[in-house]
Amino acid sequence: MALTGCVYNAIPPESSPAPSRTPVVDGVSAELLPFYEQELAWESCSGADAGSYDCTTVRAPRDWNSSGDGEVELAVVRRAADQGDALGSLLVNPGGPGASGYDLVADSAQFAVGDVLASRYDVIGFDPRGVGRSSAVACLDAAGTDAYFFDIPAAPRGTPEWRAELTQRNESFAAACEQNSDGILPFITTEFAARDMDLLRGVLGDEKLNYLGYSYGTFLGATYAKLYPEKVGRLVLDGAIDPSVPSIDVSTTQAVGFESALRAYMRSCLDTGECPFRGSVDDAMADLGTLLASVDASPLPAADGRQLGADSLMTAIIAALYAEGNWPILTQALAGALGGDPQTAFVLADFYFARSADGTYQDNSSEAFRAYNCMDYPDDLTPEIESAANARIAAEAPTIAPYWESVDLCEVWPYPPTGTRGEITADGAQPIVVVGTTNDPATPYEWSVSLADQLASGVLVTREGEGHTGFQKGSACVDAAVESYFVDGTVPDDGLVCQ
Questions:
Q1: What is the DSSP letter of 429?
Q2: Residue 215 a catalytic site member
Q3: Which residue spans within 46-196 are E strands per DSSP?
Q4: Cα 442 vs. chain centroid, distance in angstroms?
Q5: Which terminus of the chain has a smaller tally of CB atoms within 10 A, N or C?
């Protein structure tokens, strides 16, 4: 996310911190006024670029259905607009669930939203409840997390003993999350995170919410639009999740999406002189299947004592498929694994789990991811549905299929899910722009099409290409559409297709 498609004249970033605005409390109930009227204590903090950053903490109800039952804290960073006539606040969520919006913006607001939007908006990064610097989900220590993600089960894959071993591992993980998360697990839901966003809008002094959400951030944004359609400002949802799709269909569609992306990678790889595979795409995929089976049977030892089995190698592959720019390192990883060296594959797997080279974890994104999903997705799986899903994966994602099945952590989560799945229409909202990429493996294009159709004011912008999400991914057409909407309010043509 480094390119923009339009150029605006911007004042050099020497501005002072954004002024505080009067909180907006219209329509807020009496019991919630103490939260919406809170005074924010902004402090100067650092960012990666030359802009002016300040940070604060916002108090939110732990339980939005019972506002007197404790509080959570939300960490917020703000980069003041380069130009003095800021168009207001622009909240950003990078996805996950569990990714840090605070870090995204603090690391570089321009990377988060591009130069044009950073020039015109006060860019707001925040960690949703359960994430990062906010009141956070905490589970295992680094060694325990390593064991959870990387230890290879002793029992053969797919056997009852294998399932029992993974279930026991899940039980230990879930118990640790419950023990170490200070009672917040039942309140880590997308609905409550969306209500938190409205609180942020109010205390920041914005009448309406301007928001850019990537990946899972599209579900968060769509949920906000469902709850507060009259408060929707300019929303762009990039790499959409279909809110009507049940958990098993999410998993199935992603498996098929990653298989499609893997085939696209193989076509590209075979056109280079450095690909470790030969022949047709089908030949290369068969050879990759052989490699996965080989490390499943005989894992490759790494210098740090870990062993690269098929699950970790598949994690490495998936991590690389999120962006076409990662394909060269995927080639290195696969060539290394074919030669008995797992080092580069572990670099990719560690990147996926936010693991540092010294064995520590940079954030709690993996824990928060699981906490949100276990509360958001209802338990509606039947043996018949599961069998049909497995049959589709085997037919449409044959390389990935043997290593896609696992034992669901949510089966042993300490709290039952409270989320529901269904179409979101957000009747009465301003136009909501949905960006979809045609061969996006993580949030397949069909989900963007579906969400844009569901939303009463949905507008679909299509990027033809590879990788996850579409804004700032090299398409001047997509970038211009998004930037013009945020800056000028110009709504793109519904159905716009960009190269």
A1: P
A2: yes
A3: 53-61, 71-79, 89-93, 122-126
A4: 9
A5: C
Residue carrying the six token digits 């949100």: 372
Q: Which of 122, 198, 350, 440 is catalytic?
A: 440
Active site annotation includes 46: no
- Section 311-334 average pLDDT: 97
Classify residue 384 as exposed, middle or buried by CB count within 10 Å of its CB (0-12, 13-18, 19+): exposed
Look-up of token digits 């136009």: 431
Per residue in 228-242, pLDDT (tens digit) is 999 999 999 999 999
Residue 261 backbone dihedrals phi, psi, to 5 degrees: -65, -35
Convert the pLDDT of each residue in 343-373 to its tens digit. Answer: 999 999 999 999 999 999 999 999 999 999 9
**Chain-centre distance for alpha carbon 44:** 28
Say if residues 214 and 93 touch (Cβ distance below 8 Å): yes
Query: Strand 432-439 vs strand 307-308: parallel, antiparallel, or unpaired?
Result: unpaired
Q: Of these residues, 89, 100, 135, 215, which one is catalytic?
A: 215
For residue 311, what are its two tokens?
A: 């699950």
Taking the model in full, what pTM does it have? 0.93
Q: Residues 103, 296, 450, 468: which is the catalytic one?
A: 468
Active site residue 453: no
* Cα–Cα distance list, 160 to 136, 147, 166, 430 (Å): 34, 20, 10, 52
